[in-house]
Amino acid sequence: MINLILFGKPGAGKGTQAEFLKSKYQLFHISTGDLFRHHISNKTELGILAKSYLEEGDLVPDQVTIDMLKDAVENNTEAKGFIFDGFPRTTKQAEVLDAFLIEKSMQITATLALEADDDILVERLINRGITSERKDDQDEEKIRNRFEEYNNKTAPLRSFYDAQGKFYSVDGIGSIDGITQRLTALIDGLL
Ligand code: AMP
To answer: Ligand 1 in contact with 154 (CB < 6 A)?
Structure first.
C-alpha cells in the first residue's frame, strides 16, 4: 500500500499533481479543502461551520477536520492507498493521522513537499481565482493569511516527517508535466 502526503503552501500544485498521481498509482485522493468546499456548497452542518474559516483563509479547527478525514478513509477502505492533499496541516493532525493509520495497519509512505517561492504562489493563486471563483484566491490579504497559517501551523510538519525519514522536497517550479516526472521518479525509487 502506498500512502502519500502532498505537502506545500497554497498554490504549490498539490491538487494538480494529485490528479496525475492518483491514476498512475491507483490511489484514492482525499483533499480536505475539496471536502470542505463540497460541504459548503451543499450547506451541510459541517459546511456551515467551516465556511467562515475558508473565507478568511484560517484553518478549520483540528477536531472537525480530523473527523472528516477519518470518515473519508473509513468510507474507502477498498483503496490501494491514499493521497492526502492538504492534510495534515497541524502537528495535532499529523499525530492523530499516524495513530489512526497504525490502528488500520497502514502508514505514511512519504511526504512529498512541492517547493515554490511565495511571489510565484501568489501569482498562481490570483490567476486561479479568476477562473475558479474561490473567494480565498481572489484577495491578496486572504492569500497572505493562508501563508501565515502555513508558516505558523503547518511548516513544523517538515521536521515531524523528516524525523521519521519520510520527508522529500521536490522543486515545484516548472511545467506541470516536468513536476509530475520529478514526483514519479521519487515515488518509484521508494517502491
Ligand atoms: P485548500 O483547498 O487545501 O487550499 O484548503 C482551503 C481551506 O480549507 C484552507 O484555507 C482551510 O480553511 C481549510 N482546510 C483545508 N484543509 C485543512 C486542514 N487540514 N486543516 C484545517 N483547515 C483546512
So the answer is: no
Domain range holding 141?
2-190
Pocket probe mutation, ligand 1, options 6, 60, 70, 137, max atoms within 8 Å of Cβ: 60
The closest residue, in CA terms, to atom 12 on ligand 1 is: 54
Q: What is the pLDDT of residues 24-50, one digit of tens each?
A: 999 999 999 999 999 999 999 999 999
Segment 83-108, tens digit of pLDDT: 999 999 999 999 999 999 999 999 99
For residue 18, the cross-strand partners are none
Pocket test for ligand 1, best of 9, 29, 32 (most atoms within 8 A of CB): 32
CATH at 103 = 3.40.50.300
Cell digits of residue 151? 508558516
Task: Find out whether the beta carbon of 8 lies less than 6 Å from any atom of ligand 1.
Answer: no
Instruction: Give me the number of domains the chain comprises.
Output: 1
Distance separating alpha carbons of residues 105 and 126, to the nearest angstrom: 41
The Cα–Cα gap between 21 and 44 comes to 30
Contact 118, 11 (CB under 8 A): no
